[in-house]
Specification:
It is a single chain. This protein is α/β, with parallel strands linked by helices. 43% of the residues lie in helices and 16% in strands. It has one domain: NAD(P)-binding Rossmann-like Domain (Rossmann fold, 3-Layer(aba) Sandwich), CATH 3.40.50. It is built from 7 helices and 9 strands. α1 crosses α7 and α4 runs parallel beside α5. The chain starts with a strand and ends in a 9-residue tail after the last strand. The structure holds NADP nicotinamide-adenine-dinucleotide phosphate. The site of NADP nicotinamide-adenine-dinucleotide phosphate has 30 residues, from α1, β3 and α6.
Amino acid sequence: MLKTIDLNGKRALITGAGSGIGRAIALRLAEEGMKLALVGRNAEKLMRTAALTGRPLDMLVLPTDITQSSGIEDIMHILEGHFKGLDVLVNNAGMALNCPFEQTGEAEFDRIMALNVKAPFILCQRTLKLLRQSECPTIINIGSVVSHLGYVQQAAYAASKHALLGMTKALAKEVYHEGIRVHMISPGGVYTDMIAIARPDLSPEGMIAPEEVAELAAWLVAHRGNAVVDEIRLHRVNKEPFQ
Ligand SMILES: NC(=O)c1ccc[n+]([C@@H]2O[C@H](COP(=O)([O-])OP(=O)(O)OC[C@H]3O[C@@H](n4cnc5c(N)ncnc54)[C@H](OP(=O)(O)O)[C@@H]3O)[C@@H](O)[C@H]2O)c1
């Protein structure tokens, strides 16, 4: 039976909540009455998201670089102190890189892996003990079509998003029997700041709206049934599916 969960008062941590997909997810989950921990490096962008929810006092603004272990420790202390637990983790923060393979520097490779793979890995690891105490423990990792496909000049980005998919699959199996659901949403081109860097060749026309991704995230969090959704791929309307 499909059970709808009342999200009012439930707690979510969203990384990259100051812009794009992360902000859209924050606004959508806030509509459900959730309390949110908003994470990103830029405090002003996070405060803008908090203000847009219309309930800024229910929002924790946590300006943090999640590639720094000290940053993740700070998040954990504040979560345990203020939220006294966690129901939903959304690993959304990420970076793209559009660069020919041979010109991709080691430092850039390390940076993209630290943000797109290691940070979600550590955040999952550190929050599991809090999620175990929740009635609706859910992790949503934001992958990409690049989790499944290779595009030219995106080897480092593809490597990072393939790695995130691998981690998601393994973790989903490892914690499924504890009632913790781990999903991945893999969008194609979404109209955000990032797309200009990742795919300067694409026009905004026909792009997925961040709100479409947010709607799916909210559905995943609010519904539990016998059918477990492991991964959702979203294709742009002007691109044929299954490519
Ligand atoms: N746009 C697309 O077409 C598309 C398609 C598929 C998947 N995605 C994925 O969707 C996710 C969100 O991307 P977006 O399109 O919404 O782009 P975006 O607006 O650039 O969002 C990226 C977010 O990550 C945060 N961030 C970056 N480095 C960080 C760090 N070290 N610590 C904490 N936060 C950090 C940024 O905030 P600060 O700069 O304030 O830190 C920003 O809010 C990414 O994982 C991306 O790979 C995007």
